């Protein structure tokens, strides 16, 4: 049995979660970099004349025409409901208005689903007055989106490395906990929970562990975003179940060097470029992302001075390039240095040769991660 979450008059919150780029080359399912584009929710709760919950969603920005507005179908509110139900609560018996402004394009490898899942957990936290710790928010998010790379960066900000703890069989009840790529249907009927429904248990504790690495303030981030989407689930389906030992060793060697080299001063383009190469997911995804190998293998610090490294962002199709801004004035938010512009335009031109339309964006690392702020 569940109860409506408490309502104590009018309340307002802002939830803000950054985009993220996962993998950074060799760190498949490990590395994440939080990026300066955000999913923002403005939430207000006000008492209703009728004692029933009325959750209304509105969108501006990315996904505004695609995202479902039904709170039982929308990913953000379904995750919030999962968090509430696992505390034997449901949406408050009040009017909950959620205005969503989204700068993270869907299905482009910039962590839109991780941002939505983290925002959903924070929304459940706010509506249920649960006061979850950051670790607990991570536990919930990782039960929904099971690769910790994006979730950790989106939640904690910065350049992160993470792993999932090996859960004991007794901690896993797949029938009850919505382990899924992006929560395909939860609750199962995708409608309001019914009194007789099974409620999900709370997730195990410390599902994921992470560290934050140094990331030089002289690194500019360029993302080049094609106009087509690649679903993460589909891009994961392109990967084999096992790998030759030499490919695993190739990635492990580069992963170890990369994590230290992005925080070093001065930055060493040759070391970084080579340590951002990958053999476990990028070549396998080439079929879904035409032109990928050509771009990441032919653009080097020698051909494009200032380029530090280049890789697929997450599961793609976006390409992420790291550029050295050493010696240049720090660009204002949303502005590019000449080096960043050259790299962005060069990738765009290569992709255009294959008839692929793209836009490139100058970004920076997001240091803050996800925030939940209550307005008094
Ligand atoms: N802000 C959002 N609101 C609702 N659903 C979202 C939001 N962001 C992402 N999603 C869902 O996640 C899907 C994209 O997830 P995914 O294929 O993993 O791509 P990405 O690489 O962008 O995370 C979208 O098609 C949509 O169903
Ligand atoms: N490690 C995952 C990352 C998926 O990131 P997304 O932003 O594309 O959802 C993978 O490579 O599959």
TrEMBL record:
Start and end residues of each GHMP kinase N-terminal domain: 74-158
Similarity comment: family membership: Belongs to the GHMP kinase family. Homoserine kinase subfamily.
GHMP kinase C-terminal domain ranges (all copies): 275-333
Pathway the protein acts in: Amino-acid biosynthesis; L-threonine biosynthesis; L-threonine from L-aspartate: step 4/5
Catalytic activity, reaction form: L-homoserine + ATP = O-phospho-L-homoserine + ADP + H(+)
InterPro entries on file: GHMP_kinase_C_dom, GHMP_kinase_C_sf, GHMP_kinase_N_dom, GHMP_knse_ATP-bd_CS, Homoserine_kinase, Ribosomal_Su5_D2-typ_SF, Ribsml_uS5_D2-typ_fold_subgr
Alphabetical keyword list: Amino-acid biosynthesis, ATP-binding, Kinase, Nucleotide-binding, Threonine biosynthesis, Transferase
Protein's recorded name: Homoserine kinase
BP-aspect Gene Ontology terms: threonine biosynthetic process
Species: Rhodotorula taiwanensis
GO MF terms, alphabetically ordered: ATP binding; homoserine kinase activity
EC number in record: 2.7.1.39
